[in-house]
Amino acid sequence: MTGMATNTEQASLEFADQTLLGTDGGAEQGPIIRVDSVWKIFGRNPERVLGSEHSSKSKPELQSELGVVIGLSDVSFEVQKGETFVIMGLSGSGKSTMVRCLIRLIEPTSGSIFIDGHDVTAMDDKRLMEFRRDKIAMVFQHYGLMPHRNVLENASWGLEVLEMVGLGGWEMSYPRQLSGGMQQRVGLARALVVNTDILLMDEPFSGLDPLIRRQMQDELLRLQEELQKTIVFITHDLNEALKLGSRIAIMQDGRVVQIGSPEDIVLRPEDQYVGDFTQDVRLESVLTASRVMVTPKATVLGHQGPRAALHTIADSDGDAAWIVDRRQRYIGILTIAKANQALRAGINRLDLGLGYVDQGYETVSPDTTFDVLIPLAMASDYPVPVTDRDNKLVGEIHRSALAEALAETSTADQDFEANVAANAALAAETEAELEYDSG
Ligand SMILES: Nc1ncnc2c1ncn2[C@@H]1O[C@H](COP(=O)(O)OP(=O)(O)OP(=O)(O)O)[C@@H](O)[C@H]1O
């Protein structure tokens, strides 16, 4: 973090206000945030860098030659509604500058920023204040709590929200009486109670113990599942980025060097920098169900009888069928043995409560990682059912597919190393040729 924290914490308090913005032309379609060629140059006369021969120089070169510091260098990205977009990079790479430029807590030197269809860079001060208050909530590493107000007051009367972040019963406590993790929960509650679509989170969990930090990450994932906010999340921790991000932008020296899903970043790093960053990541933590799920082979409607189910199972070459309702919502699994039992018992509808349909198997979502999938697949004699947000059965995962995907991707990894080596050799050759030509 830089010395900007104090200002922005104050700003975050301003945002804890309940007024709602009118429906003035927010775009429904397309990205909710669009950042287009944004530069931030700290120092005197930053304009002299833009569009000049200087703009292609490296950060250290500019610093020593012109005494300016590149905060952001030609940054562009889009964030879709409901996405958790993570900006990741080492200290000084420009993450905080970027997130502050989004709402002009730092003024970008050039470029444009659109949020929900509004041109943020064109707003006057009054409009900008309203806009921040109504559209954006922020959570920072230093919770920004008011020490003389209790938890309930700090979270602006959000009883229900306090319950949601696990602080029920602590309403009357003061910040000093809470642990770091709990204070961060208050910060989160306060951001949620404002009920904005967009949440900006700058290293919110960085000050916490590893265990508490993991709990807070899980908490955020759980809340996000429910609330579907658009979150821009800043972190310098790759594992945190991979765990939370729908997509991740990796920054280095003010530039975005790659944007992609966790899987893209780990399996298809675009340069050596990203490759070095991600080389120790366990594949199981980034590969997801969507990669290996296939169309469910045998599905049977609950009101169909065991005879129909046995036919479907026979056609599928498997030894069980998924039972779903008319809207394809997952109910459970029916094995051949149970279908035969039901048939012998003269049952003609597989309604629940009769003990034929087994509901004991856990379902996963397309985003579930292999870390979670593998133990489930190992513990079951049947494929793992995959359901979407509406509990519709969208796929099944076979144990063998998990092993195959892991084998495939670790080979891809070796290919990457070979590619980087080949690229480096090519670059060296080209350089040698150029030197030869010019000499
Ligand atoms: N007010 C400022 N004046 C001059 N340079 C600044 C200012 N704020 C940031 N910088 C510089 O801009 C660059 C990006 O800083 P920024 O704080 O955005 O990085 P960061 O990735 O958020 O780092 P950290 O994780 O340490 O917070 C750094 O080189 C920093 O020194």
TrEMBL record:
**Is Nucleotide-binding included in the keywords of this UniProt record?**
yes
Protein keywords: Amino-acid transport, ATP-binding, Nucleotide-binding, Transport
Tell me which CDD domains the record gives.
Answer: ABC_Pro_Gly_Betaine (cd03294)
Q: Name one Pfam family in it.
A: ABC_tran
GO cellular component annotations, sorted alphabetically? membrane
Q: Do you know which PROSITE patterns this protein is assigned to?
A: ABC_TRANSPORTER_1, ABC_TRANSPORTER_2
InterPro entries in UniProt: AAA+_ATPase, ABC_osmolyte_uptake_ATP-bind, ABC_transporter-like_ATP-bd, ABC_transporter-like_CS, CBS_dom, CBS_dom_sf, Gly-betaine_transp_ATP-bd, P-loop_NTPase
Instruction: Identify the SUPFAM superfamilies for this entry.
Output: CBS-domain pair (SSF54631), P-loop containing nucleoside triphosphate hydrolases (SSF52540)
SMART domains named in the record:
AAA
Q: Where is the ABC transporter domain?
A: 33-278
Query: Which GO terms of type biological process are on file?
Result: amino acid transport; glycine betaine transport
Q: Which GO terms describe its molecular function?
A: ATP binding; ATP hydrolysis activity
Concerning PANTHER family, the annotation shows: GLYCINE BETAINE/PROLINE BETAINE TRANSPORT SYSTEM ATP-BINDING PROTEIN PROV (PTHR43869), GLYCINE BETAINE_PROLINE BETAINE TRANSPORT SYSTEM ATP-BINDING PROTEIN PROV (PTHR43869:SF1)
Q: Which family does the UniProt entry place this protein in?
A: Belongs to the ABC transporter superfamily.
This protein is called Glycine betaine transport ATP-binding protein OpuAA
Protein source organism? Geodia barretti (Barrett's horny sponge)
